[in-house]
Amino acid sequence: MKIGLLVGSLRKESWNKKVAQVVQKLFSEDIEVNMIDISYLPFYNEDLDGENPIDEYKKIREEIGKYDGYMFFTPEYNRSYAPAIKNVIDIISKNPTGNLWNGKPAAVFSASIGQYGGMGANFALRQPLVCVNLIPMQRPEVYLATIDKLFDGNGNIDKNTEAYLQTAVNEFIEHAKKIIG
Q1: Where is the NADPH-dependent FMN reductase-like domain (predicted)?
Q2: What's the CA gap between 4 and 37, in Å, rounded?
Q3: Closest by alpha carbon to 72, among 4, 6, 166?
């Protein structure tokens, strides 16, 4: 099984990127898990696509096509998810040879320095995932509130949070196995 991790925050010291890095280490060694860089992508523009898509669209479609499932990590921007994630969803779903997301398992993790853990973003992101026929894991729901207080000065996450993330990873693996077969 190959799982791709997509982080919506493009900020160098992104809390969601840090969470994704923790999650990446929680998978067993028999599952390949990689971060997928979406920071270089220009906004989707149909004029740049079609029979002769720009190189950036070709590159990300090739990369996304390698994976069996995906985990999305998003901050909350104005009660919604990160625009970088919407952009990659659109680019991949508009692939001239077909929607590369179709029928694959997904999970949404959100983290915020606020009290709600990006819950609005988490809920909002599920809608386009369903629209492109990704199959989101329903439980556990992962919203990490006050994320800035859950990491120590050495970049280690709180043990209780790590245990919760391990539970979510284990559930995602089971979710993915049911879909992938």
Answers
A1: 1-145
A2: 10
A3: 6
* pTM for the model: 0.97
What string of DSSP letters covers 136-156? E--SS-EEETTGGGSB-TTSP
By the 10 Å C-beta count (0-12 exposed, 13-18 middle, 19+ buried), 100 is classed as buried
Report whether 104 contacts 65 (CB < 8 A).
no
Measured CA to CA, the distance from residue 126 to residue 74 in angstroms comes to 11
pLDDT digits (tens, 9 = 90+) for 161-177: 999 999 999 999 999 99
Rounded to an integer, what distance in angstroms lies between the CA atom of residue 2 and that of residue 24? 12
**Contact 102/180 with Cβ under 8 angstroms?**
no
For residue 83, what are its two tokens?
A: 């625009």
Instruction: Give the pLDDT score at 181.
Output: 82
- Alpha carbon of 51 to those of 42, 46, 96, 112: distances in Å? 18, 11, 7, 40
CB 44 within 8 A of CB 88: no
Q: What is the C-alpha separation between 111 and 121, in angstroms, rounded?
A: 9
Contact 110, 74 (CB under 8 A): yes
Q: Residue 42: what are its φ and ψ, rounded to 5°?
A: -75, 160
What residue ranges in the chain does DSSP mark as E strands? 2-7, 32-36, 69-74, 105-111, 135-136, 142-144
